[in-house]
Specification:
The protein is α+β, with helices and mostly antiparallel strands. The protein is built from 5 helices and 9 strands, in the order E-H-H-E-E-E-E-E-H-E-H-E-H-E. The strands form 2 sheets. The protein has a 7-stranded mixed β-sheet, with helices on both faces. It is globular, with a radius of gyration of 15 Å.
């Protein structure tokens, strides 16, 4: 297995894996192109994929560079340890179900963190899916050093209404909770 920077050649596999793990219509080509651009800064790419020996994407970490993403109503900047100019955003991670538990997630996060620091970020936030199986998303981010800022109800409901997102638990009426967590980059 290799960790590589996300490139256009990976897009179709990343979209397929993202929709498998996070639910239908979570990613499409237009969304992924925008995400990709928000992770580029100073000639460096903060998003990564894990590719197996057969060349298949078995995991990805999509990350926005500091100062290049929209701070919305689901963010609590007054509780962040750094100013928004130095805050990156860990958009999402997905590991194929057959590859989970092999340490791929931490390797992808580490690769993103190294690039974010080179780009000038001092911390990063994420909105983690509290209802993930076994609350694995929050456990994973906590183990990496993340701390809880705030819980947000109905975080992905607007995505259902406006973008046709289908939560793997709630369908097209998602009431899952997001844990806004911060990871200081040291």
């Amino acid at each position: 297995m290799k960790i590589e920077q996300l490139e256009a050649q990976h897009f179709s596999q990343v979209i397929q894996l993202g929709n498998l793990v996070h639910g239908e219509n979570y990613l499409d080509e237009d969304k992924l192109k925008k995400i990709y651009k928000m992770g580029l800064k100073n000639g460096l790419n903060a998003s990564f994929v894990a590719v197996n020996e057969q060349g298949q994407v078995i995991g990805f970490r999509l990350t926005y560079s500091a100062g290049q993403w929209p701070i919305d109503k689901w963010c609590t900047p007054n509780s962040w340890p750094v100013d928004s100019e130095h805050m990156a955003y860990f958009k999402c991670i997905a590991i194929h179900p057959n590859a989970q538990g092999q340490g791929i997630g931490p390797k992808l996060l580490s690769a993103s963190v190294q690039i974010l620091k080179q780009q000038g970020a001092k911390a990063g936030i994420a909105h983690l899916w509290k209802q993930s199986p076994g609350n694995g998303a929050v456990k994973y981010f906590t183990k990496a050093g993340g701390t809880l800022i705030k819980l947000h109800d109905d975080r992905w409901l607007e995505n259902c209404i406006n973008e046709g997102y289908e939560c793997p638990i709630c369908g097209n009426d998602c009431h899952c909770q997001a844990a806004e967590m911060v990871l200081t980059l040291s």
